[in-house]
Amino acid sequence: MSLPFYIVDVFTDKKYAGNQLAVFLEAENLSLEQMQTIAREINFAESTFITKLDLQNNSAEVKIFTPAQEMKFAGHPIIGTSWVLINEVFQHQPETITLHVPVGEIPIHQSEGLIWLQAAQPEFWEVFSKSDFSSFSNLTATDFDDQFPIQEVTTGSAFVMVPLKNKEALERLVLDKEKMDDWLKKHCKTSHRGLYFYCREDAKLMTRMFCVEHNQLVEDAATGSASTCLQAYLLKYDVPEIKLINHQGDFMGRPSQIYFNGKLADNQFEIQIGGKTQLVAKGDWEA
């Protein structure tokens, strides 16, 4: 079986930066096991599989896999897959499309070269102590921004938001994989577990995301799902309206720019993230 596929770099205005993504078309006859095997073979942070395409209504059903597991929601795969559909698959490059993923329907629109998604309403879960981090990181008590809580947040995929005081603390961060993995398994509510460290210095938002997959400590170049959680968190605890750029991947040589546009009113969150996508390659995959 031959599958058309695209490779794109997401959340970047140039190739070979941002977060890599493989997008597979015509995947309706693949089993979940085959999708997982292909995602593990290509070994990007995520790969997507389009299992149903509605050309008349500009919509698609999409499966999302990391090399280790299926995801219910993930931002950079949705942004990158939407770019491929709008610019390479659907006729007349529609401004709006709809993706159907396990958490539900995701409205998408393209504007001035940016693909935007609207996230689901967030849930705010357990708050943690900064002293917990002394067991698995080199952070000290003075490295945290005490204005904000350390808290697990989800908009479909859950991450622990960890506010740091400055770029220096973010840059020199070191984690112990085994102890971090043990802490995540004991404290996080879902099978997908990640830490999202951030700081705001000189009006610039910078982030790093870490998780453990296949017994390896993994850092992500651009994490859209964590960005929707962070946007919700900032709307709740910092400002009720936000427009800024989240800079991720700088410390691993793949700088990424994730655009935030959100507001909180009457206890309802409007969470949008956007980004640019670059086409790197396309071809046929022999499944």
Automatic annotation (TrEMBL):
Span of the signal peptide: none
Native organism: Flavobacterium geliluteum
A Pfam family recorded for this sequence: PhzC-PhzF
Lineage, highest ranks first: Bacteria, Pseudomonadati, Bacteroidota, Flavobacteriia, Flavobacteriales
An example Gene Ontology molecular-function term: isomerase activity
InterPro entries for this protein: Phenazine_PhzF-like
CC annotations in GO: cytoplasm
Protein family per UniProt: Belongs to the PhzF family.
Protein name: PhzF family phenazine biosynthesis protein
Enzyme active site: 46
